[in-house]
Design goal:
Structural class: mainly beta
Shape: globular
CATH architecture of the largest domain: Roll
Number of strands: 10
Radius of gyration: 19 Å
Strand order of the largest sheet: 2-3-4-1-7-10-9-8-6-5
Distance between the termini: 14 Å
CATH superfamily of the largest domain: Hotdog Thioesterase
Number of helices: 5
CATH class of the largest domain: Alpha Beta
CATH topology of the largest domain: Thiol Ester Dehydrase, Chain A
Helix content: 10-25%
Strand content: 35-45%
């Protein structure tokens, strides 16, 4: 995902003692997965405690996204956080590939190449994960996730990978109260912006709980929000995303 690439580009210009604590990316136009991206980083500030960066993302000379990020040296301070939701642990929960394999007839052909390929992350939904929706559903969901392989490297490697994963399932949660499934043949969606704030260290190869909700949908836009917890209950990241959601008169074809 572009937001993870933007974070990585900014980090390459920041001293190793400063770690990302916030990034916000705005999408300007759709990009092509088979064409290279160019990321140009601007150094805004370099203080003793904080550094800020901006990055412009272009493809074939056209702007497709821009992002802002802030990095901070490790610092002690007052602490409080909300409690992690009391949900079932990952053991015994079914992983998404098994769910998709059992209900493949309900997955539109245009979604299958993405969801049926080998994924970087293992996702285990806590609640029932319907492929189709017959009625409106609550705008809250919970997933356990971790990488399918062990991950070496410092904190920024784990931040980059979690940023990539945080763009998954968040907008779909906001469609549930509307009775619209992510598999709807008439649905057109696109991310408009994406933000993530990091609060505490974590590892992406250990189980993390992604608690998702959606406070509002209006103006053909869906707002999604998420909190990511370590298994010990520590809140490690907060996520927000706004996306376009349109119901078209015609059936969508081609790739997602």
């Amino acid at each position: 995902m572009i937001v993870a690439q933007a974070l990585d580009a900014m980090r390459l210009t920041v001293p190793d003692d400063k770690h990302a604590h916030a990034i916000h990316l705005f999408y300007q136009r759709a990009g092509l997965t088979d064409r290279p991206l160019v990321l140009k980083v601007e150094r805004d500030t370099d203080g003793r405690s904080f550094a800020q960066r901006r990055v412009a993302v272009t493809q074939d000379g056209m702007p497709i996204a821009y992002a802002m990020g802030s990095f901070q040296v490790a610092e002690e301070g007052a602490v409080h956080q909300e409690a992690m939701p009391a949900v079932a642990g990952p053991e015994g929960l079914e992983a998404l590939p098994a769910i998709f394999a059992r209900a493949m007839d309900d997955v539109p052909a245009r979604h299958r190449p993405f969801w049926c390929r080998r994924q970087m992350f293992e996702w285990r939904p806590v609640e029932h994960f319907p492929i189709r929706l017959a009625t409106p559903q609550p705008a809250q969901r919970h997933f356990w996730l971790r990488t399918n392989a062990s991950v070496d490297g410092p904190l920024y490697v784990h931040q980059r990978l979690l940023t990539y994963a945080s763009d998954t399932h968040i907008m779909q949660t906001g469609l549930r109260p509307l009775g619209i499934a992510w598999t709807d043949d008439h649905l057109q969606t696109s991310s408009l912006d994406h933000a993530i704030w990091f609060h505490n260290p974590f590892r992406v190869d250990d189980w993390l709980l992604y608690a998702l909700d959606s406070p509002v949908a209006s103006g053909a836009r869906v707002m999604g929000a998420g909190k990511i917890f370590r298994r010990d209950g520590t809140l490690v990241a907060t996520v927000a995303q706004q996306g376009l959601a349109r119901m078209l008169d015609v059936v969508r074809e081609g790739k997602i």
